[in-house]
Description:
Helices cover 31% and strands 23% of the residues. It is an alpha/beta fold. The relative contact order is 0.16.
Amino acid sequence: xxxxxxxxxxxxxxxxxxxxxxxxxxxxxxxxxxxxxxxxxxxxxxxxxxxxxxxxxxxxxxxxxxxxxxxxxxxxxxxxxxxxxxxxxxxxxxxxxxxxxxxxxxxxxxxxxxxxxxxxxxxxxxxxxxxxxxxxxxxxxxxxxxxxxxxxxxxxxxxxxxxxxxxxxxxxxxxxxxxxxxxxxxxxxxxxxxxxxxxxxxxxxxxxxxxxxxxxxxxxxxxxxxxx
Length: 228
């Protein structure tokens, strides 16, 4: 699978439905680069890195997590450079690692067929915490490419992080706009809060993890129609 170039500084390694692999995104700075999410497993991360290398792009120095769910984080032990998560995401990962250590992986593999496909042939399940943790908001500049990283109230999880590539006018939402696993129900109040946060960024392109890029207007319409 090849990278798709979204803007001058942003590339996307596309999502895959069969193994529930989300988009893995890449933001290139002049000095160092940022990845959005770590992947479903080490194999997913490795496929992303092969695509980067084929495109002549340096591996990311920092991987930022959008939330704790396995398809976004369980490749974290295989990332290049450091990882960053909000404090709540990191706490969830530590709790899940303790449960795996205590109970084994059968309960995890039983959650969904896509997980069993990702971890076929006895692929190990490895859960690691983040290297760095933040609360609230951070601003980074990897060289000519300012990035704002912020926690947000959202219907999918209570640990959502949005990543805003400011000059590129691109907002990475992770799964924030989705419903709660596994029922996919959405809280209308949280949809409205997320819409307000999204609108305040003034981004032009919004990228959800399991979908293609949308305009800001399309994203807001989706959220507010859910809000009712």
